[in-house]
Amino acid sequence: MENLAVREYNRDADEKVRIELEIANIDVQKLPAPLLAEVKTRYMGQLGNWKFSRAWSYWVAETDAKHALSVETALRLYEKYDPKDTRIRPHGLAGGSDEDIRNWNKPVDVYHIDTQLGLCKFAEFLRTL
Predict the structure, then answer these.
(1) Rounded to whole angstroms, how far apart are CA atoms 89 and 113?
(2) Which of 35, 36, 49, 90 is a plausible cystine mate for 108, CB 3.0–4.6 Å?
């Protein structure tokens, strides 16, 4: 994904955020003012109890502890979609091995997603739950 982090609000980046959410069929929420975050955008996503916010070159998907994916469900996601293609990272895990992922011991309430394909597949998976 393109690095959209900027110091000032940028209408073009804002539009890219909206389009990425729409491509993944994630409900787009327009905010009254841009977020004061890495990506200055007026858009966030919502899918069920999951919220989606754009970081510099990835998406952050997060939910509360009550709606976190169980270890078993998180492993199903990992096994269904090749993480080398989708770049869906539980707990923001960077550079972890397959063994690390298979030895999780707590529910997953946050993912970092590095590709449009990953964003689409993660949303598709959430809709099946």
Answers:
(1) 6
(2) 90
